[in-house]
């Protein structure tokens, strides 16, 4: 104090200086305390294994498999879908590939991702393709997200196969037409050979037209707005039209088509698509049936479902082929299908048409005994003041007359 007086400072000046020094010391102590609290909180966070509430809420709303694991691989929290891959809260992360991914994410200090093949629930026969990503959310916790992309991969593969198969199937009749055209040119002086090659070209052109038409039908069925003309549809009328379209084929093959079961059933849908679907089943049944056999078309109404079964007494379908019989371009009997002009798209159209109408298609078959394809569709009540019995009977009489003309040799 005396020294300050000696320097000529007055008492008020000394008081202000003391106040400034005290304020500086107080601010410094406050900052030191705040830093200490922050450091303590940071250390607590780094050592804590409590999953933040926000992360838990996100996990609870996720459709993908996801979990939070600690540095030792223990699962601290998980979404409901995580159990499909055997991930349970309180248990260690068992899968070695996922553990390695978590370690990789922690080593990089941010995140790591990888595509893996995992099994669900420990079933080695059910591998799934997943896109997994590990992201560090704290020094001791890592968020692991597992997205199942198996179906996306399957759809991509189906698109690639469809393009490849379509190109292959189109190349065959186009190549045949080219060769036959060259043969006609070389046999220009032989009318008989020209007529023969011309008939072959016509057959290949018909096959090409059938193939492209079915590809377009299948593409329309797979579009979002496939059913453009939805209205009440009489099953009797649909079957009568489909039967009429294939009666010549049946009589030429020596196969009888018989219609039985319930009458007056109605569904809601697109009549043209249903006619094509049932027509494909009838055409297949006739093509794979021996001469002198019978193809049966039966209708049964069970509660709110209409069951339409098309049965044959043909060669049947092997059990190994039943899983794939509805795939595009798949043929259980390649040689016979080629001989009968099959495209391998008929049953794929049947499947997609049925699904578009909210139904399902079932298959029963025994090799050497025949096959039965059953389409199940939701039934609706018949619309008022609509009676199609006369129309259907007229169609059936017309089909019977056409069959009689074929038997008498009157059809060209």
Automatic annotation (TrEMBL):
Key words of the record: Kinase, Membrane, Phosphoprotein, Transferase, Transmembrane, Transmembrane helix, Two-component regulatory system
EC number: 2.7.13.3
Residues annotated as signal peptide: none
Location in or out of the cell: Cell membrane
Transmembrane regions: 14-37
Annotated region described as Disordered, given as residue ranges: 380-412
Organism: Microbacterium foliorum
BP GO annotations: cellular response to phosphate starvation
Catalyses which reaction(s): ATP + protein L-histidine = ADP + protein N-phospho-L-histidine
UniProt xrefs under PANTHER family: PHOSPHATE REGULON SENSOR PROTEIN PHOR
Cellular-component GO terms for this entry: plasma membrane
Chain ranges of the Histidine kinase domain: 165-381
Residue stretches of biased makeup (Basic and acidic residues): 380-390
Record flagged with keyword Thylakoid: no
Keyword Secreted carried by entry: no
GO function terms (MF aspect): phosphoprotein phosphatase activity; phosphorelay sensor kinase activity
Positions with biased composition (Basic residues): 391-400
SUPFAM superfamilies recorded: ATPase domain of HSP90 chaperone/DNA topoisomerase II/histidine kinase, Homodimeric domain of signal transducing histidine kinase
Domain of life: Bacteria
UniProt-listed InterPro entries: BphY/WalK/GraS-like (IPR050351), HATPase_C_sf (IPR036890), HATPase_dom (IPR003594), His_kinase_dom (IPR005467), HisK_dim/P_dom (IPR003661), HisK_dim/P_sf (IPR036097), Sig_transdc_His_kin-like_C (IPR004358)
Protein name listed in UniProt: Sensor-like histidine kinase SenX3
